[in-house]
Amino acid sequence: MSKKHPWVNVLFLAPVTLAFVLVIIVPFFLGIYYSFTDFNGVRSHLTLVGLANYRVMFNDPIFLHSFLLTLQYTAINIVSVNVVAFLLSLLVTSDLPGRNFLRAGFFVPNLIGGLVLGYIWQFVFNSALLDMGRNLGISWLSQSLIGNKNTVIWAMSFVNTWQYAGYIMMIYVAAIQGIPANLMEAASVDGATYPQRVFKVLIPMMASAFTVTLFLTLTNSFKQYDLNYSLTSGGPAALFMGKASKASQLLAMNIYNTAIAAKRWGDGQARAVMFFLILVIFSLVQVWLNKRKEVEM
After folding, report:
1. Mean pLDDT per 10-residue interval, the chain, length 297 residues
2. Which residues are CB-contacts of 198 (< 8 A; sequence separation ≥ 6)?
3. Cα 128 to chain center, whole Å?
4. What pTM value is reported for the model?
């Protein structure tokens, strides 16, 4: 058998590598360059403005508001998605009849696109729940949850949990099925109750799964755009630091509105670069903390 020449591997990888460079690497570094210019999407002659776009960004209350909203939204989702997904995984790995049907049913919402999902739940919040609240005399349901600046982030998090928990559940199911059954049986024989078996045996054995699921939930929440756009479009109106803002405009939408809608591409790219750095830092810290926890467990 003839020995394969190394150039054969290079030729096979070339199309994928070229696509990766053109679609990811080149736009990434161009974006960094544009963040230091006055680029508006049209002007061919660019002027370097240094850190001016970054100074504008950090002095913009709307950007700061979007950043804080994104942190709040992400924190809520990390808790809600993972708690719901873990409870569902315990349910569908039990001896409950029809558990495979339930497993498929819980996963189905994840197949619905974010835009479609947002429009569906917009109808639910603005029509179905309002009619239900009026007919049943429930005052807090008589006004739209996505039309109230105090409840809109919670409503968005509820929809995201409804969609995403089924996907995270499947990761937990795979982790649970990979744990030797004799460990749980031995704990049961020793007199451990079910909650004790879950917290003392199951969860420590699933530490690596928690690292993955927390990372996925963190990045998914930080990058949220399609659901934000179709469900609320960033509304309703709110005040932050004495300036009119939007009560549910997350960072990704703020970047889009700055770069595309307002045609301030340089400013928008500066926000995108900062968004990237924030996401990388939060992700690395989260993974590092979880890896340490894995070793301790």
Report:
1. 71 91 93 92 84 94 95 97 96 88 92 90 93 86 90 96 96 92 85 88 90 94 94 92 91 94 92 94 90 68
2. 90
3. 27
4. 0.91
